[in-house]
Amino acid sequence: MSLLIRDGAVLSDDWLLLADGEAPPKTGKLIVSWDRWNAERTDLDLGALEVGLLLPNTLDVTAALGDLLGRPLLALSFPSFSDGRAYSQATLLRRRHHYAGELRATGQAVVRDQLQQMRTCGFDTFLLRNDQNPELCAKSFHDLTVAYQPNLLNISGLRPGKH
Amino acid sequence: MYRYDQYDQTLVDERVSQFRDQTERFLAGQLPDEEFRALRLRNGLYVQRFAPMLRISIPYGLLASRQLRMLAHIARTYDKDYGHFTTRQNIQYNWPELARVPDILADLASVQMHAIQTSGNCIRNITSDHLAGVAADEMLDPRPYCELTRQWATFHPEFNWLPRKFKIAFSAANGDRAAIRVHDIGVQIVCNAAGELGYTIYAGGGLGRTPIIGPMVREFLPEADLLSYFEAVLRVYNRLGRRDNIYKARIKILVKETGLARFRDLVEAEWEQIKDGELRLQAGDLDAMRSRFDRFEYDDAASLDTSFDRKLAQDTAFAAWAKRNLAVHRQPGYQIVFVSLKASGVAPGDMTAMQMDAVAELADRHSFGEIRVTHDQNLVLADVRQSEVYTLWQSLRDLGLATPNIGLLTDLICCPGLDFCSLANAGSISVAQDIFDLFDNLDDQHDIGPIKVKMSGCMNGCGHHSVGHIGILGVDKKGEEWYQVTLGGSAENDASLGDRTGPSFARDDIAPAIKKIIDVYLSLRNSEDESFLACYRRVGMAPFKARLYAVETA
Ligand code: SF4
User: Fold this and answer.
1) Secondary structure (3-state) at B211
2) Is beta strand B82-85 parallel, antiparallel or unpaired with respect to B168-171?
3) Taking the alpha carbons of B169, B170, B176, B177 in that order, is the dihedral positive or negative?
4) Which residue range forms the structural domain that includes residue B380?
5) Which of B73, B131, B437, B531 is deepest in the core (most CB within 10 A)?
6) Full DSSP string of B272-314
7) Quick one: pLDDT at residue B209?
8) Residue A155: which of B7, B34, B160 has the nearest Cβ?
């Protein structure tokens, strides 16, 4: 089964991922797809429900900020191990537009070998692929303790005094 | 050389541990094949026809003598005593054992080297002019800009899983020796009318299946904006580049399908958002980066030497070599020396461990301990006092590294082809040898003059055949090795793609076909000063075609 982690600790997932077509409960925390949100938002956004969105990695997030920034949770998709589009979505949402809710990584690439990059791009929770060992995943956040990003010019002794 | 600080070193050391862990998990069956493949490629490790192939990064082609000695050590300890320099200024080993690759990486890290991002769908090794810093036609040294870019690109968290590989090249000279127009991004460092430094940016060039000469996307980008502009281009590409078809995934296809004007608008709109942000270079940043590079003390008295001219007059073999294998240094009294890795009986770009050690020694003795790798698969000792050139030449000759053929027909470039590469349609190394045999006579080669012959074993074009003055491409015809020929390509300032001559040639006919092409050129050129390329551009394909395919109709 898939485990959810944050900073290396396993969390209980209190969000319900609602399949398209499945009837929503009256209260609680729900994740719905971007398409469903667009079709049914007036029914879903009633106040009794907390609604998070599962976004396709093809979505231009900057064109949809009005919908996205106020959400308590956004789940971004890694549909295959090598499809890195959601890295740019996360960077835009978190770093440029200061999205403040939970940014959750989901899909096939949510494995120990990519977690550290995901966190650097602004993800804070990770729905691990079901073959992943959460302890090994937690360790991977410390694989590389240094980085040239976001700004190599502030490091590496290039700008003295800004070490 | 750029010298690592503790920060740079830590990153490379930690990468070794990370890759060791990935390799161990793979060998223990805990990492799926497909995933290990994507991860090992990011570290330059392919699984080839017979064995793994490891590609090691040589940023902008610059090596210290101790690094070249380490490459010799690796060839001896982990491989079959040789390495292969590539068209992207890197080195490849063809026979390492998978389980020992982490040890190789640890050895490399001990001399500030690595294999990071030498393959895979990420930003690859940054390449540049192999004469950077010494060329007479250079505006300024591009290498500090390359190093800034290398650091920005190294483990960039957002751009590590791109649609496809991404290559960046820099030039700062009048003559483009870095083939910037056939890169995903090509940067020409320029000075505008107001005397300000900046860059002309080309994007969407590339070779391979759909060769394209990169169009200009920005005529003048101010110096401070280099990294933010790269970031904008890469973000547009990561978001919008195609992922449904590997052959349409390079940025060149995005540029083409989007249209240059619209692509430019997308990049500019993204760049507007970030250009005043943290990636903007500040006063002093580039000076700080420059100060991390070794600076050499040239001796003004070096030009007082008279022995060099005397030796040229006395020794015709030396003079013949000097004519081809030296280039003008901007410091009077110094020479740029090319070490030819194109000798008969040797695959182009191959070098033995013994030769590597010996060249490292020669670099220490004659050239400030520094060596460069060219994208024509030769080496350069860039800072040799003219009084020492004769002795150096004698040493190189003894090592088999003084073939006087730089820029001539047998200085051809060639990918590993069928002998090593699992993607190849046809052999390239043996064809190179046939061409070598046919044109072994140096006087003939000198008479033919400067010409670039480039050969690839398949459409991927690692041998850059599309931009060869003569290009040779291996194709598969019902399981047999055939060769397609193109004429008139160039990767320099006048960049262009070659035109196909017509039907391809069988293995036995390819070297004779090259001979016919040369014969046509020799008979049609209007003087000895008209190069092959100029002649082809003047007379066109028809006379070549007539001669090449005459036999069949006769
Ligand atoms: S051009 Fe083809 S055959 Fe040659 S090295 Fe590249 S992939 Fe292999």
Assistant:
1) coil
2) unpaired
3) negative
4) 300-398
5) B131
6) HHHTTSTTS--TTHHHHHHTTB------GGGGG--HHHHHHHH
7) 87
8) B7
The answer on B335 and B313 residing in a single domain is: yes
- List the CATH number of the domain containing A10: 3.40.50
Which ipTM was obtained for this model? 0.94
Q: Find the B415 Cα to ligand 1 centroid distance in Å.
A: 6
Q: What is the C-alpha to C-alpha distance for residues B232 and B221, in angstroms, rounded to an integer? A: 13
User: What is the reported pTM?
Assistant: 0.94
CA gyration radius, chain B: 23
- Output the ligand 1 site: residues, CB below 6 A: B 415-417, 421, 423-424, 456-458, 460-463
Which 3 state secondary structure label does DSSP give B244?
Answer: coil
* CA–CA–CA angle B366, B64, B125 (5° rounding): 135
Return the structure tokens found at B159: 């751009």
**Domain assignment present for B295:** no
CB within 8 Å of chain B, chain A residues 4-63: 60
Residue from B119, B207, B209, B423 whose mutation best tests the ligand 1 pocket (most atoms within 8 A of CB): B423
The band of A157, judged by pLDDT with boundaries at 50, 70 and 90, is low
Rounded CA separation A118/B310 (Å): 64
What is the C-alpha R_g of chain A?
17
Residue A95 carries which side chain, given as an amino acid letter?
R
From A149, A158, A161, select the one nearest B285 (Cα to Cα): A158
CB neighbours (10 Å) of residue B246? 12
CATH number of the domain where residue B48 is located:
3.90.480.20
Q: Examine the pLDDT at A156 and tell me if it is beyond 70.
A: no
Give the whole-number percent of chain B exceeding pLDDT 70: 99
In one-letter notation, the amino acid at residue B163 is P
In a domain, A156, yes or no: no
Give the residue from B270, B235, B272 showing the smallest Cα distance to B254. Answer: B235
pLDDT 10s digits, A61-117: 999 999 999 999 999 999 999 999 999 999 999 999 999 999 999 999 999 999 999
In the beta sheet, which residues pair with residue B181?
none
> Cβ–Cβ of B161/A82 closer than 8 Å?
yes
Average pLDDT by consecutive 10-residue portion of chain B (554 residues)? Answer: 93 96 93 91 82 92 98 97 92 92 97 96 96 94 96 96 97 94 97 96 93 96 97 98 95 97 98 94 89 94 97 97 96 97 92 98 98 96 98 98 95 88 88 91 88 94 95 93 96 94 95 96 95 96 95 52
Tokens of B536: 């082809």
Asked if the Cβ–Cβ distance from A156 to B17 is below 8 Å, we say: no
